[in-house]
Amino acid sequence: MTPTADAAEERAYATVTWRLLPFLGACYLVAYLDRVNVSFAKLHMLADLGMSEAAYGFGAGVFFVGYFLFELPSNLALHRIGARVWIARIMVTWGVVSGAMAFTGALAQLTGLGTDTVFYLLRFLLGVAEAGFFPGVLLYLNYWYPSHRQSRAVAWLLAAQPLAFVLGAPISGAIMESFGGVAGLYDWQWLFLLEAAPALALAIAVLLYLDDGIDDAAWLAQEDQGLLKERLALEARTKHDHSLRELFAMKPLWLFTIIYLLIVMGVYGINFWLPSIIRQTGVRSVLSIGWITAVSYFVSAVLAVLVARHAERHNEKRWHAAAAAAVGGAGLALSAAFADDTWLTVACVTLASTGGLASMSLFWSFPGSLLVGAGVAAGLAAVNSVGNLGGFIGPYLLGGLTDWLGASTAGVAVLGGFMVVAGALIAAACKDYGVLSTQSSQYGQ
What does pTM read for this prediction? Predict the structure, then answer.
């Protein structure tokens, strides 16, 4: 490839990145905020509703059961209907259900069901509503980027996870400190109501802003459209479409699923319990907990993007992903050893969050490098949906151990161990699959 052609390609992909990633990141940030604001609501909600730690852990995790059951059909629907309409539909439904969380107690009285049961149902329905969003966005990126370019794009997308805390944590703390008692509602009720509104607003923006693919992108020059389509076509020659039966018989797909399950167990253990972990170190102000959480996740976001960028520059993703998962798991386990020291605990959890985010951003280029067409839609959804059951297992396990032992330290250490195992699997078991080395193609960087 000539220097001129290479420069044209870089400019074309830069245009796509600046057009899509900030907007998709904002949507994912709001999705993640609606998913994890329950961790702040927990600080007062359990006492107000008379719920136990184990009930909270089960409810936090049952989100992923609904997510698991509906993610694959949701992703196949997106592939057939188009990203713009389907992503907007997802955002409307999750905004409505997230706002309904504010009325958990009232709905329990109205229906005659127990408070715990209503909480479980709403969390399950939130999972159903959001099912398909993240793998749908991953699928959408496959419509624009060849697999060797996806890790950095996914790293920027995943940066929305910690940024949801960077922005959402202090905002959540401020809402809970400022709105408690207003109009007769608890602070956590206002939290759910106010933080559901952005999803509804962004659903309208999705319909106006997103395009279904390269052919619909009027903002791209015709020569750039042709270049991007050529790059995708070249890569497609090395991949195969598969029927669902063939897809689920592929050993790499199940290996990817196990790895992702283990990483997710650790990541969501952090996400759903970090405010509580910080409070156990002696911090009492909800607003202070919010700011400390924000600092931790901001550092994680920056470091995770740098790790992904380094991996792509050196055309080596397997060892980067393995090391990130192992180091992240070790940081999570070590955080349990410093439960009485706020800043040592936060430093360890920041390391854990960085490892989780970096390993996931690198991981998501692996399935896409094997599959094409409907196969990549189903494959991404299958790995993400089954793997995200770790988001049920991790919080439920941590909640049960916390109730049993009276502290979350042992459970946190166990979840850290799962992330270390994930790193070991990437390093050892995945070496037989050349995809995990993810070498740049002939037209790569």
Answer: 0.68
